Amino acid sequence: MQCTPRDANSQTLRRFSADLLAILRAYHTRFPEEAIRHETLLAQLAAGEDVSIRSNMRGHVTTSATILNARRDKVLLIHHRIFRNWLPPGGHYESPGSLWDSAVRETSEETGVRIIAPHPWTVEFGLPVDVDTHPIPARPEKDEGPHVHHDFRFLAVASDDDVLVADLSEVTAARWTPVDELHTSPDERVRALHGKLARLGIFAG
Prior knowledge:
The protein is of the alpha+beta class. Helices cover 34% and strands 24% of the residues. The strands form two sheets. Strands 1, 4, 5, 6 and 7 form a five-stranded mixed sheet that branches. Strands 3-2-8 form a three-stranded antiparallel sheet. It starts with a helix and ends in a 6-residue tail after the last helix.
């Protein structure tokens, strides 16, 4: 029997949903206190929703990368056009490919950095270092109402010697920033990420 496009799409959705559940189970084993943060995403997966598509306003998947230099004293950030804050690079997940691949692709597109490797923590655990669900305001210019992002945030390393080439259609600038500046970011999620990475002993010193 020949597989129809509809069958193929259904199989892709089931596979993606199963992969997300496996990641979340492993993540909650590592960080059990954070399970409450992902109730909406888990409910969507249980209901069979496609959280890989941007049109799902209840919530869809994004990926980002927190990239440190070799000395672990700087982090790569982009200045977001919409939120007007310095944030880790990232964007919407696009199939096919893994969440890690998506985070690397988005980072390369926004910053020009091409050689990105998983951080030793990522190699050891094979997980995002954080999974953050947060609301996004309406964007009338893109015909989007208020919605939710489920951001899978990966930890990576890259050379801070490479020339940064910001994609000005997506961001206003890219730069390497001292990691301590994350602690004083005006963005609450960035400050929380700094706190988590500090607790994990990721930073130098």
